[in-house]
Design goal:
Layout: E1 4-12, E2 18-27, E3 32-37, H1 43-50, E4 58-63, E5 66-67, H2 72-78, E6 79-82, H3 95-105, H4 110-124, H5 139-151, E7 157-161, H6 169-184, E8 188-192, H7 196-199, E9 205-210, E10 213-218, H8 220-223, H9 236-239
Parallel strand pairs: 3-8, 3-9, 6-7, 7-8
Antiparallel strand pairs: 1-2, 1-4, 4-5, 9-10
Bound molecules: adenosine-5'-triphosphate and magnesium ion (MG).
Length: 249
């Protein structure tokens, strides 16, 4: 099982502005990490380094000790990323073919591909929309499609950038259930979210970002009381001393 080690990662954008400043994180196999912080704090920029969409200006991102940018193909097989902007991930003519695209590129046989596509369509609730053209889907359905495409690849490490935005209540619950299930079956989970109350019960670690830096890191409970200083809404249950309660019914 894979682990991620980020050492002194700094990212300077082409315009000279600083995206990330001396980030150090280690993510063990099977960890459940939540990254939070205000808009523009660098969360998506950090995620983009995890599968080599951006290259470090300095520092390193290592997957099992090997630099992500040294072997992008390998990194992208191990790290599956559900992007914040779901539209950019759509490649197929139909929902079905879009989801099948990834497994087809893995060289799996047709039976295995069909089995995977059907399973993940069920998980994200798109089983009745297999023939639909992706560009006709609603915003929430597009997000479900992007999630299905990543799940179908069965990557060891899953990165979700704002996975709950645009999903309705049951869509959000289904997704969270699925994420918990993936975590229990050994996958590492990294979630960027403003909705701490949904995930905080399940997370092992919480990282708070501000201006491209990690400003707090630790076990979620120990950071309650501090998160609002960094533009993140604290789960009500923790604020009123009720203990962290599950969002799932
Ligand atoms: N290519 C670029 N050139 C210059 N600045 C950039 C570039 N890409 C992103 N930025 C800036 O970097 C900062 C961090 O952006 P990022 O997308 O990582 O924020 P975020 O924490 O994901 O925010 P949000 O919660 O809104 O998704 C922002 O101020 C953004 O404007
Ligand atoms: Mg973002």
């Amino acid at each position: 099982m894979s682990f991620i080690q980020i050492n002194n990662l700094t990212h300077i954008f082409p315009d000279g502005s600083t995206g990330l400043k001396e980030i150090n994180i280690s993510i063990k196999a099977g960890d459940f990490l939540v990254i939070a912080g205000a808009n523009g704090s660098g969360k998506t920029t950090l995620c983009r380094h995890l599968n080599g969409l951006l290259r470090p200006t300095s520092g390193s991102v290592l997957l099992d000790g090997i630099s992500v940018s040294k072997d992008l193909l390998r990194a992208r097989q191990i790290v599956g990323m559900v992007f914040q902007n779901a539209d950019t991930q759509i490649v197929g003519e139909s929902v079905y073919s879009d989801i099948a695209f990834g497994p087809e590129n893995l060289g799996l046989n047709r039976r295995e591909i069909d089995a995977r596509v059907e399973r993940v369509m069920e998980i994200v609730g798109l089983q009745d929309l297999g023939h639909q053209k992706p560009h006709l889907l609603s915003g929430g359905e597009k997000r479900r499609l992007a999630i299905a495409g990543v799940l179908a690849m069965n990557p060891e490490i899953l990165v979700f950038d704002e996975p709950f935005s645009n999903l309705d209540y049951s869509g959000g619950q289904q997704l969270l259930n699925q994420i918990i299930h993936l975590h229990k079956s050994g996958h590492s989970i990294i979630i960027v979210t403003h909705e701490l109350e949904k995930v905080i019960n399940y997370a092992d670690h919480l990282i708070l970002m501000q201006n491209g830096r990690i400003v707090r890191a630790g076990v979620p409970e120990t950071l309650m009381g501090e998160v609002e200083a960094f533009g993140v809404r604290e789960p009500c249950t923790s604020k009123y001393g009720l203990g962290l309660q599950s969002w799932l019914s």
